[in-house]
Amino acid sequence: MVFEGLHPIYDEKARAQLDLAIYIDIVNDVKFAWKVQRDVAERGWTEEQVREDIEKRLPDFSKYVDPQKACFSVGEGWCMSSGGWILRLEGWEDCRFRVGV
Length: 101
What we know:
Elements: H1 12-16, E1 22-25, H2 28-43, H3 47-65, E2 74-81, E3 84-89, E4 96-99
Helix pairs in contact: 2-3
């Protein structure tokens, strides 16, 4: 079973039920670009509206989402390469996944 979202393991009881938890840590510039693309296309927002919305939610992100990183079994990071975005598993250096964006 796969749980995904902003708060998948915020609850301690939910965390206790998982065999493996993977966190995808996307750099802020990439998150911002993805949100702008989505919100402009799907919601009709301007880039400034997206920026304001992100800034408005930063305290909640810092309080509820970001602390979950410490609870995951494996951390993942996105980095840019000449061939596109690469998903790298910390501690699993031999496992890399190429992702098209």
